[in-house]
Amino acid sequence: MTDFDTSNPLFATHILLQTSGLALKYAEARLFNVGITATQFLLLTTLQGNGASMTPTKISQASARSKDSITTAVDGLAKSGLVRRVRNIEDRRSIDIKLTPKGKEFCHQLLQPARQLASEMMSCFQREDIEEFLGLLQLLQRSLNGKTPEKKEPTKIGEFDTSSPLLATHILLQTSDLALKHAEARLSTVGITATQFLLLTTLQGNGASMTPTKISHASARSKDSITTAVDGLAKSGFVRRVRNTKDRRSTDIKLTPKGKEFCHQLVQPARQLAAEMMSCFQSEDIKGFSRLLQLLHGSLNGKTPENGGNGKNGGKGFDSRGPKPTEWETTAIAD
């Protein structure tokens, strides 16, 4: 296999989708220990950094989460007494979400576990890497939000400066969700999900046959999500489950002839998706972004127990280079 051009938009998009899923999964697992979700974490820190009171619409925009997900998050936090809904004093038709005294105290207590989360997630980076990563993430975030991309210093959140691992983690979680939603919307036009896209391209680049566990590791998706994706693709006739010839207790997922043809047809929409998602970057930006994402991907994979890590310092699943380019990615972009 030849070396892959990391300045290529399709490679950057592929690794972004992989790493976004890993980052969100990792954050959810860590934040579960303090009783909140990743969306609730973003909501609380956004409120804390903006006067402790905002409308749901402004929270949605600032945290890069859908209004529905913000409503669900507010419901849970209100039930715990951390926020409350109040009428806007300037517009009685509008509702504000306010931190309660209990919520403010919780945010103060949240600082230490949040710093620990950020330290773990950003442990693969040097200070200058974090600053570069922040700038690129914010550029991508503005682009995916439909705003005019422009390079600028990342907006401060609370007291965190632009080299802070916590600020980088905050923006990474925002942008990861945006990227996945953008990909889901575009890929729905060809009848597949983002997970099915990663599954198909992973299979195509690895001999068209793999175990579900290996697919899970290679695509950075949970085994449950891979099972759901395989069910849908099998129903469409793109893959099938077969007994492993070396271990009859094991099942392989194989691309069917129809699936191989679909992967060939998928090249053009995949290129279009990549061109859209990376349109805010210059070639050197994409190359730098891919490098940083590979570092982060390898680090998070090593920290995820189901991927062979120990949840702390990486395990047998750790590879600091991140995912290796697949043959599909190489041939898909070749002129």
| Count of domains | 1
Total strands: the figure is: 6
User: How helix-rich are the residues, as a percent range?
Assistant: 55-70%
Count helical runs: 13
| Largest sheet, strands/sense/barrel | 3 strands, antiparallel
**Beta-strand fraction estimate:** 5-15%
Q: Report, as a whole number of angstroms, the end-to-end distance.
A: 17 Å
What's the CATH architecture name? Orthogonal Bundle
Q: How large, in whole angstroms, is the Cα Rg?
A: 21 Å
Shape: globular
Mean pLDDT: 83
Tell me the name of the CATH homologous superfamily: Winged helix-like DNA-binding domain superfamily/Winged helix DNA-binding domain
In the sheet with the most strands, the strands line up as 1-3-2
Give the class-level CATH name: Mainly Alpha
From the 3D structure, determine the CATH topology. Arc Repressor Mutant, subunit A
Assembly annotation? single chain
Following the backbone from N to C, one meets helices and strands in this order, namely HHEHHEEHHHHEHHEEHHH
Low-confidence stretches: 148-156, 158-162, 304-325, 330-335
Task: Classify the secondary structure makeup into a structural class.
Answer: mainly alpha
